[in-house]
Amino acid sequence: MSAEGAGPGPQPGPGPEPGSEPGPLCPEHGQALGWFCDSERRPVCAACAEPGGRCRGHRIRRAEERAEELRNKIVDQCERLQLQSAGITKYVAEVLPGKNQRAVTMASAARELVIQRLSLVRSLCESEEQRLLEQVHREEERAHQSILTQRVHWAEALQKLDTIRTSLVGMLTHLDDLQLIQKEQEIFERTEEAEGILDPQESEKLNFNEKCTRSPLLTQLWATAVLGSLSGTEDIRIDERTVSPLLQLSDDRRTLTFSAKKSKACVDGPERFDHWPNALAATSFQAGLHAWMVNVQNSCAYKVGVASGQLPRKGSGSDCRLGHNAFSWVFSRYDQEFRFLHNGQHEALGLLRCPARLGVLLDLQTQELLFYDSASGTVLYTHHAPFPGPLFPVFAVADQTISIVH
Question: 121 in a domain, yes or no?
Answer without folding.
Answer: no
